[in-house]
Amino acid sequence: MALLTDTKARHIKPDDKPLPHGGVTGLTLHASSTKGHGKWVLRYVSPVTNKRRKAGLGTYPETSIAEAAKVAQSMREQLAAGIDPLELKRIAAEKVNIPTFEEAARKVHQEQLSGWRNKKHEKQ
């Protein structure tokens, strides 16, 4: 299969079928509602769940054909090693510790305790 060219990608229309990249298995350019624009999608089978998954790799033309191929190839290497790239991304997002409102309020309350003159304010 021939590689996707920039000329072909720039002329993609909203009603067109997804254009395969041709160099990376499962990488396609899906047309958006604007002519010449689309989104990159990598379709694969997860080695963890054995289910078909789709990973978005950005929009065209903001993400070039070469950049999308590079990202897709690195994801394919992770898949070959038995790692699901979307699962890895989800785990990394969970590690970002954003406190809940209650946790933040309790922390501020503890920090402010020393500045209050009246002890009844501590109980509020």
Task: Characterize the structure shown.
It is a single chain. This protein has 124 residues and is α+β, with helices and mostly antiparallel strands. It has one domain: 2-Layer Sandwich (Double Stranded RNA Binding Domain), CATH 3.30.160. 35% of the residues lie in helices and 19% in strands. It has a four-stranded antiparallel beta sheet with strand order 1-2-3-4, with helices on one face. A hairpin with a 6-residue loop joins strand 1 and strand 2. The longest helix is centred in the middle third of the chain and has 16 residues. 16% of the residues are buried. The model has no long low-confidence stretch (mean pLDDT 88).
Throw out a few tags for this protein.
alpha+beta, 35% helix, 4 strands, Double Stranded RNA Binding Domain, 124 residues, elongated, four-stranded antiparallel beta sheet
Task: Put the structure in a nutshell.
The protein is built from 4 helices and 4 strands.
Radius of gyration: 24 Å
Structural class: alpha+beta
Give the DSSP E fraction (strand runs of 2 or more residues). 15-25%
Shape: elongated
The total of helices stands at: 4
Provide the residue-averaged pLDDT: 88
CATH A-level architecture: 2-Layer Sandwich
**Low-confidence residue ranges:** none
CATH homologous superfamily identity: Integrase, DNA-binding domain
Largest sheet: 4 strands, antiparallel
